[in-house]
Specification:
Layout lengths: L5 H8 L1 H15 L13 H8 L6 H36 L19 H15 L9 H15 L2 H8 L5 H18 L8 H17 L7 H8 L8 H12 L3 H10 L5 H25 L10 H21 L43 E11 L9 E8 L4 E3 L3 E2 L4 E10 L6 E7 L10 E8 L10 E4 L12 E8 L5 E10 L8 E11 L2 E7 L8 E4 L4 E4 L11 E7 L2 E7 L2 H15 L8 H4 L27 H4 L8 H17 L11 H14 L3 H17 L6 H15 L12 H23 L1 H4 L8 H12 L10 H27 L1 H6 L3 H26 L7 H24 L9 H11 L9 H34 L51 H20 L4 H35 L11 H20 L10 H40 L7 H13 L10 H21 L3 H24 L8 H20 L4 H4 L2 H20 L18
Antiparallel strand pairs: 1-5, 1-9, 2-3, 2-4, 2-6, 6-7, 8-9, 10-11, 10-16, 11-12, 12-13, 14-15, 15-16
């Protein structure tokens, strides 16, 4: 058996083979969800194994498993490092993708702790423990939000799944209060928008609680960075976290890959693209293709590979040559027959002209001081000039010869790679005839980009016979290196087509574009190269010295088919720099290695590459990173690597602090896009892997945006069905099979989510997700991308899902309400209570479905109605069971009907639906039975009540106690709801100060009204039966009121007959009560006996209702007549007493003589005045009684009119009978007082002038006036001031 560690030893020698093994191991042995954590310390297990001298098979097995685990984790770690190398290169030098700026900003997610804190804050507000001032309406809105939303277990599950943000919580509250505020009445000066904004501000205050507002923005700024455009450093850090890369490992990779060197990264890309082209050509030669659905796609696949690489080349070509330096845009290369082409390559190559490689340099010349100036007097003025040959000339400031110092800088621009710089020293000429200043010395410099940039002393050339033999000038020349000049210096060169003579030349490596480089040789003061060679297609490598060539010590060459160019430098370091620069330019896959590198860095001579590039540091210094950096990307399965990368990235994204719903952040999208483009990951594979991961997360409870699923699925469907969304026309068998598998999984997932829509999308969150899910389901059900699925098929699937949803929702609802336990071991009353509570929950569920989910099902509103019917049908089983358990003639179930009916009758689809009709069928017999019993009860209460009626007035309670149960008649063996006593509540005292009808009548009217209100409140949905109920109750009320009126009429007449006819008569309150009963009957008839307006009813009903109206009216007229007759009979009695004083009677003469005789000695009472006063008192007191105790003003006025008219008529007739007789003085005085007081009293009671001043009254008035005049002539003092004149002043 091989030692398990042997694979480690072999890996040091066979790197490529080990990488393949790592790929296979990671693909087959690792967990499909995520990479395992770092290996734990295995010492405990090893120690346990070491205790036994002869390990048992189980111990050996455990040791083997532990070793295999460690090996697997090591392989996965190496795989992650290799993947990170590829990702780091994508981040360092992107050329295909950009970070998207148009992605929706994701909100911070809420966690369990924050939800609990939020509940506590809202509870504290409701308990009044905060300083937030709020009105009752806002408190009610918050209480509803807290009870229904915050405490919901569905919200808690959504928070646990990471799909809830603070914005979701605020939106739910906003929608809740919008409905409440819209229903409030308008308030002048306060708009509803103002109320809404105020309430939202208070909500925000409750939500934030007592947090430190100063710290909040800082926390948000730190956590929100992943949603913004990230820098390269932030992207590196993100993917270190995603792949579990240590900071040290990143730094080693960063330095070894030269990620900060744009040239190296561009060269790496060129090498990768060249490798991909070679692989495509090899595949075409060997005919080793993936398995496609048709053989014709094999050749198309090769063309796709080529076109994709060409597109990447074009993208790379379109980039600026160097980022960060002076702007150097790409030159448009074009074919030309210009004779200036010195390097003639292949016919298909783009050839360069001399003008294509013209460079632009900036020179800075700084003159510091001059030393050794002796030939000029110290006080003379000296200055320097500087120029770049072929350009302008600049001059320094003037200085004294004793101190020739300046520090002046001159800036120049030139196109010469080898410019000539001239600096001259002058002194001013003092002679009058001198035309020019005197030159004291000059220096000529030949700077290059590699020249030293520090100030140096240069010896100046002086004129002959000058005393300044040691004249020096200190200056600095800085010549910049253009970004597209990659290297420069002196080399020996010999070629077949260019540089045909071996000699030393000044070379510049120029990058014209990302794919075009040229080696150019320049002469002094020339902007265009003397000769140039385009490096495309060449391979550079180190060579041994050529003995036949004189000059140069370190050789290297550039080889191309049909051409070889030999180069030589003077030292090894320069050669390495040149080879490295040309290696980047050629894009060759082979990496040149110098002899010193091959000999392990020349241990005797030291590490010559230490100052050159980290690329050539030894493997020990790289801590084992060399194999990952030097690995050929073309030999890796990037489809698998990308699958691993995307999985890890999605796991990281779903676990961050944002409610992302599966959407990557802009930085993650950018890196994944760049990786796919750079390493040739097919778009269909990418989205299939993405769909697989999203579906798996969704199945495990995470909230995934269905729109995201829709995007990826549409892409894959378009690809598989040949729509070429990304220009890829080939479809592999694996892609098609995976697509069909994912399509089935996605279909099952969507159907499951729709079946659990109340729990997958609680309260309509995420917003629009359910609607998007239904849209995606329709897309998934399509056979192909072009043929739409019939609407009925989609409808059929959705209907099936909603049927399942009804069962799921009701099952969970009953579990929440614990209805099963209650129904199994409960009393009938308890069962009814539980069913009533369950009905409230069911209605709440249906209302929430309508409020939050109806918009999503707007395409099929009837399906949501069918779902509700199915849901209610499940409830009807429990409802029927509870109702069957109720005792006979129990009316406690009516509130259940009212609750359900009030909810159903307002729903367009559920009104008179299957469940609604079932509900009506159950309660129709109960309603009819109840009305029958109540009719019998009311009839008996009228009969017995009127027989025992005391006719004492009671306070009115009719229409004053809404929703009070109907009264129970004790004599009937019925279980009718009890009615409270007729004691008026204290709060009603001020409303009903006046007396009204009798106890029986009030009881009757209250029962009739309560029964009608009860039936009305049922709001029976079936119009025909509702009309029948109404008509029956109206007829019953008519019959009952008719019986009451007739019995009251009889009782009134009997009671009136028992009263006396003297002036001592005071109308009993019982008669007033009877009067009021009739008055109330008149009023109640209009309310209780008339059908609602707008209904058509038969002529018989009209006649029947007219009959009761006429009956009440006639009865009222009769009792008014009876009462008037009674009070008029009292007046007749008074007049009969006055008749005793008629002229000519014996009693009249006797009374007159006796009074006159007695008046001489004592004060004798005046006969007749007591009689008048007694009668007047009788009238006034009875008027007050009627006015106080009868409640109908119109009938009182009629009564007083008839009373006055009858009284005047009786007096007129009495006077008419004595037309031939003169009235006795006492008769006259009594009648005058009675008539005048009656007139005035009835006028005060509101009798109209026409009635008061009738002909009868005029007749009486005229007779009494004549009689008064007669008496005034015969016995002036007899009237004692009583007169018919209005101006008299009388007492009483």
């Amino acid at each position: 058996m091989l030692d398990p560690s042997s694979s480690e030893e072999e890996s040091d020698e066979l790197l490529d083979e080990e990488r393949r093994d790592a790929l296979l191991a990671a693909g087959g042995g690792s967990s499909p969800r995520s990479l395992p954590p770092p290996p734990r310390d295995p010492r405990g297990r090893e120690g346990g194994a070491g205790r036994a001298a002869s390990p048992s098979p189980s111990v050996l097995s455990e040791g083997r498993e532990e070793q295999e685990r460690l090996q697997r984790e090591e392989r996965e770690k190496r795989l992650r490092l290799q993947l990170y190398v590829f990702i780091a290169r994508c981040i360092a030098h992107p050329f295909n993708a950009k970070q998207p700026t148009d992605m929706a900003r994701r909100q911070q997610k809420l966690n369990k702790q924050q939800l609990q804190t939020l509940k506590e804050r809202f509870q504290a507000f409701l308990n009044g423990e905060t300083q937030i001032v709020a009105d009752e309406a806002f408190c009610n809105a918050v209480r509803s939000y807290y009870e229904v939303f915050l405490k919901s277990d569905r919200v808690a599950r959504m928070v646990h799944s990471g799909g809830c943000s603070a914005n979701d919580f605020r939106d739910v509250f906003k929608k809740n209060i919008e409905k409440r505020v819209r229903s409030l009445p308008e308030i002048d000066g306060l708009s509803k928008e103002t109320v809404l904004s105020s309430w939202l501000a208070k909500y925000d205050a409750i939500y934030r609680g007592e947090e430190d507002f100063c710290k909040q923005p800082n926390r948000m700024a730190l956590s929100a960075v992943s949603e913004l455009i990230l820098s390269k450093e932030q992207l590196y850090e993100m993917f270190q976290q995603i792949l579990g890369i240590k900071k040290l490992e990143h730094q080693l990779i960063y330095n070894a890959c030269q990620l900060d060197n744009a040239d190296e990264q561009a060269a790496q890309i060129r090498r990768e693209l060249d490798g991909r082209l070679q692989l495509a050509e090899q595949m075409a030669r060997e005919r080793k293709f993936p398995k496609f659905i048709t053989r014709e796609m094999e050749n198309m696949y090769i063309e796709e590979l080529r076109s994709s690489v060409n597109l990447l080349m074009a993208n790379l070509e379109s980039l600026p040559v160097s980022k960060g330096g002076p702007e150097f845009k790409l030159q448009k290369l074009k074919r030309s027959q210009n004779s200036a082409f010195l390097d003639i390559g292949d016919e298909n190559e783009v050839q360069l002209s001399k003008s294509d490689v013209v460079l632009s340099f900036t020179l800075e010349i700084v003159i510091m001081e001059v030393q050794g100036l002796k030939s000029v007097a110290p006080n003379r003025i000296v200055y320097c000039t500087m120029e770049v040959e072929g350009g302008e000339k600049l001059q320094t400031d003037q200085a004294e010869a004793s101190r020739p110092q300046w520090g002046t800088q001159g800036d120049f621009t030139t196109t010469h790679p080898r410019p000539v710089v001239k600096v001259k020293l002058f002194t001013e000429s003092t002679g009058v005839l001198a035309l020019e200043d005197k030159e004291l010395g000059r220096v000529v410099l030949y700077p290059t980009s590699n020249s030293s940039k520090s100030p140096d002393l240069h010896k100046m050339i002086v004129p002959k016979n000058s005393q300044d033999s040691d004249l020096k000038i200190k200056l600095a020349v800085r010549m910049d290196k253009p970004p597209h000049m990659k290297h420069c210096g002196y080399l020996y060169a010999l070629g077949q087509k260019v540089w045909k003579r071996w000699k030393k030349r000044y070379f510049v490596l120029v990058q014209v574009s990302q794919y075009t480089f040229a080696m150019c040789s320049y002469r002094e003061k020339k902007s265009e190269p003397q000769e140039l060679m385009q490096l495309e297609g060449y391979t550079v490598d180190y060579t041994a010295p050529h003995t036949g060539l004189q000059g140069g010590r370190m050789f290297f060459n550039a080889v191309k088919e049909g051409d070889t160019v030999i180069f030589a430098s003077d030292d090894e370091q320069d050669r390495i720099l040149w080879v490295q620069a040309m290696y980047r330019a050629t894009g060759q896959s082979y990496k040149p290695v110098p002899a010193s590198q091959a000999q392990k860095m020349n241990p005797k001579g030291g590490d010559v590459s230490a100052d050159i590039s980290p690329l050539y540091t030894d493997r020990g210094q790289k801590h084992g990173m060399e194999e990952f950096i030097s690995a050929n990307p073309c030999k890796f399965d990037h489809a698998f690597l990308f699958q691993l990368l995307q999985r890890q990235t999605l796991d990281h994204r779903l676990n961050d602090s944002y409610s992302c719903l599966g959407w990557f952040s802009p930085g993650q999208v950018f890196v994944l896009d760049e990786y796919c483009a750079r390493y040739g990951v097919r778009g269909c594979h990418r989205h299939l892997c993405y769909l697989n991961e999203l579906i798996e997360h969704s199945e495990n409870g995470s909230v995934i945006d269905p729109t995201l699923l829709h995007y990826s699925f549409a892409f894959c469907a378009s690809h598989v069905h040949g729509n070429r969304p990304d220009g890829i026309g080939t479809v592999s068998v694996e892609e098609k099979e995976r697509f069909e598998e994912i399509k089935d999984r996605l279909s099952s997932l969507l159907e499951n989510q729709i079946s659990h829509f109340r729990y997958c999308f609680p309260f309509g969150r995420p917003e629009g997700a359910l609607k998007a899910t239904l849209s995606l389901l329709e897309r998934v059900l399509m056979k192909d991308i072009a043929t739409p699925i019939p609407a009925e098929e989609v409808k059929k699937v959705v209907r099936k899902c909603l049927e399942k949803a009804a069962l799921i929702n009701y099952t969970r609802l009953t579990e929440y309400a614990k209805i099963e336990e209650a129904m199994n071991q409960a009393t009938p009353a308890r069962k009814l209570e539980e069913v009533l509570h369950l009905a409230e929950l069911c209605i709440e569920v249906l209302q929430q479905n309508e409020e939050h989910h109806s918009e999503a099902f707007a395409w099929w509103p009837e399906l949501l109605a069918e779902h509700a019917e199915k849901f209610l049908s499940l409830y009807s089983v429990d409802m029927d069971s509870a109702l069957e358990a109720q005792p006979q003639d129990s009316w406690d179930s009516f509130p259940l009907f009212q609750l359900l009916n009030n909810s159903l009758r307002n729903d367009t689809f559920l009104c008179n639906g299957k469940f609604h009709k079932h509900l009506q069928e159950i309660f129709v017999p109960m309603v009819i039975r109840y009305i029958d019993l109540m009719e019998s009860s009311i009839a008996q209460s009228i009969h017995r009540g009127l027989e025992q009626e005391s006719w004492q007035p009671v306070k009115s309670i009719t229409n004053s106690l809404p929703n009070v149960a109907l009264p129970k008649v004790p004599s009937l063996p019925l279980n009718l709801p009890q009615m409270p006593s007729f004691t008026t509540p204290t709060w009603m005292t001020s409303m009903y100060e006046s007396t009204n009808g009798s106890a029986t009548s009030e009881d009757l009217f209250w029962k009739l009204d309560a029964l009608q209100m009860f039936v009305f409140d049922l709001h029976w949905p079936e119009p025909e039966f509702a009309h029948h109920l109404e008509q029956r109750l109206k007829l019953m009320a008519t019959d009952m009121i008719e019986a009451c009126v007739k019995r009251t009429r009889i009782a009134f007449e009997v009671k009136l007959q028992k009263t006396n006819k003297s002036t001592d008569l005071r109308i009993p309150s019982s008669l007033c009560t009877m009067f009021n009963v009739l008055v109330d009957a008149k009023k109640q008839t209009a309310k209780l006996c008339i059908l609602e307006g707008g209904q058509e009813f038969a002529s018989q009903w009209q006649q029947y209702h007219s009959k009761i109206d006429d009956l009440v009216e006639e009865t009222v007229k009769e009792i008014i007549s009876l009462l008037v007759s009674k009070v008029v009979s009292v007046l007749e009695g008074v007049l009969s007493k006055l008749s005793r004083y008629d002229e000519g009677t014996f009693f009249s003469s006797l009374v007159s003589f006796t009074v006159k005789a007695a008046a001489k000695y004592v004060d004798v009472p005046k006969p007749g005045m007591d009689l008048a006063d007694t009668y007047i008192m009788f009238v006034r007191q009875n008027q007050d009684i009627l006015r106080e105790k009868v409640n109908e003003e119109m009938y009182i006025e009629k009564l007083f009119d008839q009373w006055y008219s009858g009284s005047m008529k009786v007096i007129c007739m009495w006077l008419a009978d004595r037309l031939d007789l003169q009235l006795h003085i006492y008769q006259l005085k009594t009648l005058i007082k009675i008539v005048k007081k009656t007139y005035r009293d009835f006028r005060l009671q509101g009798v109209m002038e026409g009635t008061l001043n009738s002909k009868t009254y005029d007749t009486v008035h005229s007779r009494l006036t004549v009689e008064e005049a007669t008496v005034s002539v015969t016995d002036a003092g007899g009237l004692q001031g009583i007169t018919m004149k209005d101006s008299d002043e009388e007492e009483g």
